[in-house]
Amino acid sequence: MLRIGLTGGIGAGKSTVAKELASLGAVIVDGDKIAREVVEPGTPGLAALVEAFGEQILAADGSLDRPALAAIAFSDDESRATLNAITHPLVGARSQELITDAGPDAVIVQDIPLLVENQAAPMFHLVIIVWVDAQERVRRLVGSRGMAEEDARARIAAQATDEQRRAVADIWLENTGTEDETRAAVRELWATRIVPFAANVNMHRPAENAPELDDPGYGERLAGRLWVTLGADAKSVTTDGADARVVLAEGVAEDAVIVRLGDAGFAQVEPGFYRGSDPGRAVAVRVGTQAGAGTT
């Protein structure tokens, strides 16, 4: 299974990218759609929101009045944190159900508006950021969604900055052209990177002739993915760009982590040495035990 995190600022055009990926065969797990589902009338999620923010967030028919909730929840950091604490666990649980149902060979694309803010990037093989500058996003939100300009700017300001998004981006997809141009870029990405990456992960196979990229922030992303993959079985993870060294915890043998590393996109080439399965980036990982840390 290949897991891709898809995100970008409100109004950036994630839905266009997600629809094209779905047409190509990806399984889309839409965070916004699930967020609506878990607060439908009669759900524990809606009851919790009413308890936290009051009945003024309800429409006349008992459903959630989203503009009314947004006016309260996005007014200050404490209210926004309360909203997130209620909805995020519910969205996470439902998302996991859909991922499990998709099957082991699927390409899963999780469309998560707050992926960066929730520090979820290490959970994915790839993170795609869809980008449009803030002024264009305001124009789209006002023109296409009927949002007041002040509200649009407040929503944008409450989300991650472009710099924070760049720090987690494996793929920076600029959605500044026509819709046809965006769809063409997605199709090329699917054919040249996503499909071969997924095949390599499913076979626990390293990528052939992957390029070395100049990406100063990648070392931190690589370390995060290795920590998520290995958890307490790792004593230390250090990186120098796309080269990583893992020392396993006491009593943990390399055989215990080979499959997990392969599933995460790091295929064993020989004992103690792994290469990345991503055809878009050369990655090397050296794994050793505490006893042999100085020689692997």
Describe this protein's structure:
The chain is an alpha/beta fold and 296 residues long. It has three domains: 1-26 and 106-196, P-loop containing nucleotide triphosphate hydrolases (Rossmann fold, 3-Layer(aba) Sandwich); 31-105, P-loop containing nucleotide triphosphate hydrolases (Rossmann fold); 217-288, Beta Polymerase, domain 2. The protein contains eleven helices and ten strands. The strands form two sheets. It has a five-stranded parallel sheet, with helices on both faces. It has a five-stranded mixed sheet with strand order 6-7-10-9-8. Helix 1 (14-24) packs across helix 9 (179-203) and helix 3 (44-53) runs antiparallel to helix 5. The chain is globular. The mean pLDDT is 92. This is Dephospho-CoA kinase. Its EC number is 2.7.1.24. Keywords: ATP-binding, Coenzyme A biosynthesis, Cytoplasm, Kinase, Nucleotide-binding, Transferase. Catalyzes the phosphorylation of the 3'-hydroxyl group of dephosphocoenzyme A to form coenzyme A.
Biggest sheet details? 5 strands, parallel
| Shape by Cα distribution | globular
Across the major sheet, the strand order is 2-3-1-4-5
> Which blocks of ≥5 consecutive residues have pLDDT under 50?
none
Instruction: Compute the CA-based radius of gyration.
Output: 21 Å
Report the sheet-strand fraction: 15-25%
Distance between the termini: 29 Å
- Helical proportion? 40-55%
Under CATH, the topology of the largest domain can be stated as Rossmann fold
CATH superfamily of the largest domain: P-loop containing nucleotide triphosphate hydrolases
Just give the CATH class of the largest domain.
Alpha Beta
Average pLDDT across residues?
92
Number of strands: 10
Structural class: alpha/beta
Order of helices and strands: EHEHHHHEEHHHEHHEEHEEE
Overall number of structural domains: 3
Number of DSSP helical runs: 11
Per CATH, the architecture of the largest domain is 3-Layer(aba) Sandwich
